[in-house]
């Protein structure tokens, strides 16, 4: 009897989603490194007050398309797909092996299915197993993530050294040695682990101590809370993802990873401190409503005012 979605079907869905959303990830990556090729314009914020606004996703993507064509929006998509595939497979296999060696007691599984609630012991056990599987997936997939980020930020300096199928991996090794494939890994793993535990802890508290199982729509509320807690946790841990992206490209031989575009950071903690001091730990967290922040961009166009 099937106990879940077919793994190959799920993998295919993940690849499709990664491919479809890649332009958004591409634009987000360029914003994260501080590249703003389109001038901010005077607009109105949510309180209808005049402010400077940076271009949103569609305008930014239109700029990329104008220069590189439609398929230019998919620069770096191949290593991103490889990262998604490798990470998903390793995480799934690791989870299966952990379930075999550390199975949940039958009575706890039965009680969980019956009431929808999970004991604290089961919560800790499953969270620990997911932590291990997430970390393994991140380590295996990170070299592809490094190549993807470097391939995307080439757009800034119009470089080609990280283009192609095999050449980017040679370039990473030539520039930074074997450790170059793991640039930015520590903040990425920390982000994954903190997001996992924060989201699961918030959901566990809500599900076990706040949600009334006798409510007619308890199941729907539980599904909504899964999404909400994941979203909130992602917002809290976003700065770690930003630091990871910057460290992937830092000292890569690309214009976007070298002075004067960006400082050379000796480690990810230095990058965090620099961004924190400049108030930039949320840079790139929004793709659609983007107030202009002085000092938040490394390359920018002149400020424009709207046409009368």
TrEMBL record:
<keyword id="KW-1133">Transmembrane helix</keyword>
<keyword id="KW-0472">Membrane</keyword>
<dbReference type="GO" id="GO:0005741">
    <property type="term" value="C:mitochondrial outer membrane"/>
</dbReference>
<keyword id="KW-1000">Mitochondrion outer membrane</keyword>
<dbReference type="InterPro" id="IPR023395">
    <property type="entry name" value="MCP_dom_sf"/>
</dbReference>
<protein>
    <submittedName>
        <fullName>Mitochondrial carrier-like 2</fullName>
    </submittedName>
</protein>
<keyword id="KW-0677">Repeat</keyword>
<dbReference type="Pfam" id="PF00153">
    <property type="entry name" value="Mito_carr"/>
</dbReference>
<comment type="similarity">
    <text>Belongs to the mitochondrial carrier (TC 2.A.29) family.</text>
</comment>
<feature type="repeat" description="Solcar">
    <location>
        <begin position="121"/>
        <end position="209"/>
    </location>
</feature>
<keyword id="KW-0496">Mitochondrion</keyword>
<keyword id="KW-0812">Transmembrane</keyword>
<keyword id="KW-0813">Transport</keyword>
<feature type="repeat" description="Solcar">
    <location>
        <begin position="2"/>
        <end position="101"/>
    </location>
</feature>
<dbReference type="InterPro" id="IPR018108">
    <property type="entry name" value="MCP_transmembrane"/>
</dbReference>
């Amino acid at each position: 009897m099937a106990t879940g979605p077919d793994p190959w079907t799920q993998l295919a869905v993940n690849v499709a989603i990664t491919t479809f959303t890649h332009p958004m990830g591409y634009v987000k990556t360029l914003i994260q490194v501080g590249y703003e090729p389109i001038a901010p314009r005077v607009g109105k914020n949510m309180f209808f007050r005049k402010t400077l606004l940076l271009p949103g996703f569609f305008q930014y993507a239109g700029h990329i398309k104008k220069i590189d064509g439609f398929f230019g929006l998919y620069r770096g998509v191949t290593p991103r797909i490889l990262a998604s595939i490798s990470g998903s497979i390793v995480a799934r296999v690791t989870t299966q092996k952990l379930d075999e060696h550390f199975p949940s007691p039958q009575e706890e599984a039965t009680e969980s299915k019956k009431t929808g609630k999970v004991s604290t012991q089961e919560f800790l056990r499953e969270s620990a197993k997911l932590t291990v599987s997430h970390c393994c997936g991140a380590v295996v997939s990170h070299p592809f993530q490094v190549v993807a980020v470097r391939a995307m930020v080439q757009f800034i300096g119009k470089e080609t050294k990280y283009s192609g199928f095999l050449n980017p991996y040679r370039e990473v090794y030539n520039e930074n040695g074997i450790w170059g494939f793991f640039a930015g890994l520590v903040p990425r793993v920390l982000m994954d682990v903190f997001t996992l535990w924060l989201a699961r802890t918030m959901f566990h508290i809500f599900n076990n101590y706040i949600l009334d199982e006798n409510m007619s729509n308890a199941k729907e509320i539980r599904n909504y809370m899964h999404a909400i807690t994941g979203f909130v946790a992602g917002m809290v841990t976003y700065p770690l993802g930003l630091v990871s992206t910057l460290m992937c490209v830092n000292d890569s031989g690309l214009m976007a990873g070298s002075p004067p575009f960006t400082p050379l950071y000796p480690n990810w903690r230095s990058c965090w401190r620099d961004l924190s001091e400049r108030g930039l730990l949320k840079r790139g967290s929004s793709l659609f409503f983007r107030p202009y922040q002085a000092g938040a961009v490394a390359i920018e166009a002149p400020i424009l005012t709207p046409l009368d």
